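Many introductory courses stop at the sequence. We go one step further.
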Amino acid sequence: MIRNISSFVKNRAALSVGFLFSVSSLLFGTWVAAIPSIKNRLHFTDGSLGLSLLLSPLGAITGMLLSRIVFRKLPVGKWMMMGYITSAIIMIFLINSLNRPMLWICLYLYGVTGFLNGVSSNATVNLMEKKFNRLMMSTCHGMYSLGGAVSALLASFFFSIGIVSGWQIEIISFVIICIIIINRKYLLANQDIIHTKSAFKFPSLSILGISFICMVTFMAEGCVADWSALYFKEVLDTPRRFMSFGYAGFSIAMTIGRLNGDSFIAKVGSKKIVIAGSLLASAGFLMVSFAPGMVVAIAGYTLVGLGCSCIVPVLFSASANIPGVSTVEGFAMVTTGGLIGFLAGPSIIGLISEKSDLSKGFLLLVFLCLAAATAGRINQFLGKTKVLTGENENGPSIDSPLNL
């Protein structure tokens, strides 16, 4: 892991793209910690908050429809520069929403930019992998998980010194925007036009299978993100300073798994990673659902993070290498299911908890993760992508500058 991280960090171009993955989770982790106060300030119930969260997947679907237009006109690097700064600004308004309509508009816009940001950054990583003949997707997704862990710990620190969520997001967004501007040379160097002009193709059952696994995995991540703090507060009666520890355990486990993922995937194989990871996540949610206290719940969330850690990198790499399907089409087909799961999943859990409680809501994820393991076992595209070794006989390794 150390050697992999060292070579990744030394390359400023690769690191600048990897940082964008952490931006998404830094922003989202701050939102997670802010949800309890937003719920009280705007007088939401679990059900009404869950329904409001559906606006983000609606925005993601809009982003999918806009992706062909955006990526036909803009180089991927220019969008990454603009898109992630825009997301940071939207999140400032989202957390500081003065009323429900303002919150709803921001949720929708965050869904739009989130989808486009995800396609652009993952497509860029896929291009880097092919150019330098080495796996990097899991490491970049490890940066996302690292951002989630950092955001959870920052939220705990800020709350302990009396800084409320509204100020937290302003401080974090300012730092993020400054770093993106500093790295603009490396981001703008990615001049690829990733739009495809091919006609729309209805996805095959195997592609839909990958999309389903992605939906379940993202749903798991979204539910941990949106409901873990409320679960600790309302079900386990945890002190405020510990409310983000479930998400922190989840994110730390995700980070460790993903930073080891590129070498682990090459040794174990994509199919086994998906099956075993889904089973681990199912077991983790089972622990959370029946947790008698905070320690067991944190352990359950940690197990979910470990199980989910390498699944998404495997799926994204598979989606970009499907025969007869372009990179943009592959990502659009698969990540549509993923983003819907990430953003709609918490809404479903909210509706279930409205009728029962959050413990029962998490039981749904136990069965969905088992279904994802089954889908992974029968999918024909998993485990058939070319293994990248990190050594390219026809060109430089990742330690060389990336001129994309």
